[in-house]
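Researcher: We're teaching a course module on how sequence relates to structure. For the next exercise, students receive a sequence and then see the predicted structure as tokens, so they can try to spot secondary structure elements on their own. Here is the exercise chain.
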Amino acid sequence: MLKIAIIAPKDIVNIAKEASKEFEEQIIVFEGSMEKGLKISRKLEKESFDAIIVRGGTQLLLLEAKINVPTVKIPIKSIDIFNTIKLAEDYNEKIGILAFENMLSSIENYEKISGKKFEKHVVNTENEVEMRVRQLYKLGVKVIVGGGIIKKYSEKYNMVPIVIQTGKESIKTAIKESKRIAIATINQKEKAERYKAIVEHSKNSIVSIDEEGAIIFLNSPAERLLKKKSKDILNKKIDKIIPNININQILNDNGEEIESIENIDDKKYIISKVPIKVKKEILGAVIIFQDAMKIEEMEGMLRREVVQNGHIARYNFEDILGEGKNIKEIIRIGKEYAKVESTILIEGETGTGKEIMAQSIHNLSNRKNGPFVALNCAALPESLLESELFGYEPGAFTGANKNGKKGLFELAHRGTLFLDEISEMEQLLQGRLLRVLQERQIMRIGGKKVIPIDVRIIAATNKNLYKLIKENKFREDLYYRVNILELYIPPIRDRKEDIHYFLKNFIGAFSQKFNKDKIILTNDSIEYLCDYDWPGNVREIKNFTERLVVMSKKPIMNLEDIKYIFKPLENNKRKNNNDTKIININESENIAINNALESTNGNITKASKILGISRTTLWRKMKKYNIIV
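Model: And here is the predicted structure for the students to work with:
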């Protein structure tokens, strides 16, 4: 409950008490004015009153004394002044008025209306009151008009005091205003305390400066950073405490936020300087010091966690390599697709970079701050794929998580869902996916509630979907739903001009990664590698160059060196060299897989890396050729 005090002259104490009864708040009325009122206010300040209501000059004294309690003035209405002067005129025409600044306009208005002039004196303190009363006495004034304080001195000079009366409504108005101000002040104090608690418990070092660059606040971490106590550096210029900090730019220029990395005691800090502006005027700044090493560690942890969950797109268009016209046109189209929300179908062989393209489109789109969720439709059986996509309610099936589970559609809300190898999705699921694309809502397995979703679909396939439609293996209506925007990424054999570019870039990247000297390929070895069709596309080139850099023992690699390292895949060359016989694609694929498995002692993961294909694709091809390990 609010605690409100009214300090009033004796003549209105009873009126104040009557007015107070109409309010629920705790309102206490004290008799006093001027110096006595100030003395009472100092006591009320210690007792944590929420507001003090006073009249006339008492408020001026409280403001000068900087009493730390909101003060509200009882309004003196013009009609009250008019009535009081009229009453004084009934006593004597020789009238003197002691007024405060806020009363002068009403008195002057009365003079204009009545055509009379009065002896007027403005007072601000109680000491002035006696002096002015004495002056009026010497001028022959018989009746004196003013606040309650005039009674104390007028009788001493045998003068009639006429105190300006304050009505009940004026006091009620002051009480209502004091409630409003008290509540606003309490709310402001609560906010200030919250901000103070946040700043004080922040792990970052925070310093606040005024417009001259003097320190006006710093939190505990800042004390530890500067190795100085707050009391020892308050009001001192910050550039005297931290010599290499430049604050002139933030205080004198446009007042834009500035961030820089600085060394303090041989330790790197990210320093943010944020201007404090009120009506475009810079009143100071807040300077935040963040330990650069800790931020780097935290960002690394967060990125690792998010990447593990598969909800982030790591690639941008700058990561798509190639110098040929084909790839440049594909990138241009991809950037155009990023501007809209339509569903995209990306077609291309395994290893051409379909997911990198999908991530790049996501990161350039309006959904870049949302999740990027990827799913390989060929990697899971139908039952598991359905629960992964749509999620399930608790107890939906045997072995289900007791708390249920969100599906990938929900996890991708306001982001992008990438469906790789969509051609492998069973037709029942194709029907459910079609409904999602049409209705933009899903229902979990075992659930009854419809969940609205905001997801952009990017699908990818390494097969000819139109051919699958003819074979009744893919729904035609779903095809037209996912193939609104089409993007075809050609295989490396159709982009021969990019092979040398890939080799050069990947060799440079892996040399740096493994801290090895960058190797140089001879012209005949480059020609040999560029002549190869690379059925695993970019992924195969990348895997080969990684193996090349790891195995290289000299700075220049000639054709013989390349053939030695490239041997497991040499039978895949489709050109009729003198030392290579022509074989069909299926036979070469079979041989390559067997060679890779033999060289890795049957390790599927390692073999798929050598071949430049995914584990799923390798399993499928092993099944096709009846290869058992």
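Model: If you want an answer key for the exercise: The chain has 27 helices and 24 strands. Residues 9 and 33 are 6 Å apart (CA to CA).
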